[in-house]
Amino acid sequence: MTKQLIIATSNDLVRIAPVRIVYISSDGNYSMLVQADGETRMLSFQLGQIEKMIASQLGSEGNIFIRIGKSLIINRSYIYYINMPKQKLVLSDVATFNHTVTASREALKQLKELLEKEAK
Amino acid sequence: MKEDKEIRDDEIRIIGNESPTPQPSARRLWRWVAGGLAAVVLIIVLVLAVRSGREAAQSDAETYFDPQPAPPVTEVRAPQQLGQAVDSLVRGFTEMRDTTINDIPLRIYIPHNAEMALHVGRLDKCDTTIVYAAQAADIRRDNRKIVGAFVLKGEPLAWGLSKKGYCAIIDGKITVGVAANSPLFEEATERDGYFFRQYALVDNGQLVENEPKNKSIRRSLCDRNGEIMMIETLSAESFHDFAQALVDLGADHAIYLVGSTSYGWAVDGEGVRHEFGVENPRMPRNTSYIVWRRE
Question: Which of A53, A65, B42, B53 is the most core-located residue (most Cβ within 10 A)?
Answer without folding.
Answer: A65
